[in-house]
TrEMBL record:
The protein's required cofactors: Cu(2+); Cu(+)
UniProt keyword annotations, A-Z: Copper, Metal-binding, Oxidoreductase, Repeat
Tree of life domain: Archaea
Plastocyanin-like domain location: 46-145
Record protein name field: Copper-containing nitrite reductase
EC number: 1.7.2.1
InterPro entries listed in its UniProt record: Cu-oxidase-like_N, Cupredoxin, NO2-reductase_Cu
The keyword Oxidoreductase is annotated on this UniProt entry: yes
One Pfam family it belongs to: Cu-oxidase_3
Subunit structure as annotated in this protein's UniProt entry: Homotrimer.
Gene Ontology terms for molecular function: copper ion binding; nitrite reductase (NO-forming) activity
């Protein structure tokens, strides 16, 4: 397996994000690109492209100022790659267009704190469609301690950290092209945190790291019975807003949100785009009670649950239309054939 070396590559001096000369990484991460069936609901299987076996892939968590090394290993049947939005440096030369059985290596300096997306980037139209196929995840660059206002005011870390990725699944390329999602979800499963509520106590300090990877829909993230005390666009402490009812988050945008649970009871967390997103799965619960055993951390990667023999539906956007969805044309009828959105 050949690694692409950055040793002979020229970087502009003084630009934040570029790796320092001969820098040794503070953090190293391995992303394994592959294809797999993932469970997104009871009996619903998504025939996905994945990092490390799940969709979304694993959390990449670093500190502001870290030198970060990412190794991408392609164990799949198709060419894959990586675009990492936390890197303000050349990436495609090193981790773009990685053939099956090959590896790529990227080194960068995490100079900008915030919440970022990473996704497959094999090049060309495949960048769109491999994102359609579920190949993405979250990067968090934590700022220096005490940078977020509520943490500074309370003098302590959050009681609960929730890393939340919103994303959608499409049945086929046509629906992807038209923006008609079949399912919209948090962290890999439809209505995941309705079935697995986030446990909290009244007064708990909760920090959400919220990322909308899309690939197409704009989220309106809201807590029923809650007002976000402090919201930081992009997750950067410099970009603060106070007292928001929702945060509006386009594809690949993000927020860090600080909130204290006001009382006992259930608090719905939801994309307030009810008809296009909430009804399709972008709903969860923070369940608050005095004696709750807190959920200290919610991680953003998808479920590792394997499909069983009770499969009711397979969502496979790159496969031919099912027999039930096929149409028969009679002699003399005009047929228009269009390949849309699902070339990978």
């Amino acid at each position: 397996m050949a690694l692409t070396s950055a040793s002979a590559f020229e970087y502009a001096p003084g630009v934040p994000g570029n790796p320092p000369p001969n820098a040794k990484p503070d953090k190293t991460f391995l992303l394994v690109a592959d294809e797999a069936d993932v469970v997104i609901d009871e009996g619903i299987v998504f025939r996905a492209f994945v990092f490390n076996g799940t969709s979304p892939g694993p959390l990449i968590l670093v500190q502001e100022g870290d030198v970060v090394e990412i190794i991408v290993r392609n164990q799949g049947k198709y060419t894959h790659g990586l675009s990492i939005h936390a890197a303000n440096t050349q990436t495609s030369k090193f981790v773009g267009n990685i053939a099956p059985g090959s590896e790529g290596r990227l080194v960068f300096k995490a100079d900008f704190p915030g919440v970022y997306m990473y996704h497959c980037a094999p090049g060309g139209h495949g960048i769109l469609t491999h994102t359609l196929a579920g190949m993405y995840g979250m990067v968090v660059v934590e700022p220096k301690s005490g940078s977020y206002l509520l943490e500074r005011q309370l003098g302590r870390e959050p009681d609960i950290k929730v890393y939340l990725v919103q994303h959608e699944v499409y049945l086929n390329g046509r629906d992807f092209f038209d923006g008609k999602a079949a399912y919209v979800m948090f962290n890999g499963k439809v209505f995941r945190y309705v079935g697995e509520p986030i446990q909290a106590r009244p007064g708990d300090y909760v920090r959400f790291y919220f990322l909308n990877v899309g690939p197409s829909l704009t989220s309106s993230f809201h807590a029923v019975g809650g007002i976000w005390e402090y919201s930081y666009q992009g997750g950067n402490p410099s970009n603060v807003a106070v007292g928001l009812q929702t945060v509006t988050v386009g594809p690949t945008d993000s927020y860090v949100i600080e909130w204290r649970v006001p009382a006992e009871g259930n608090f719905l967390i939801v994309s307030h785009a009810f008809g296009t997103q909430a009804i399709k799965g972008a709903v969860g619960l923070v369940a608050s009670s005095v004696n709750a055993t807190r959920t200290p951390v919610v991680l953003p990667q998808g479920s590792s649950q394997k499909p069983d023999g009770k499969v009711k539906r397979v969502v496979a956007p790159f496969e031919p239309t099912s027999q039930e969805e096929s149409r028969t044309f009679l002699p003399g009828e005009r047929a228009v054939i269009q390949i849309v959105g699902n070339s990978f």
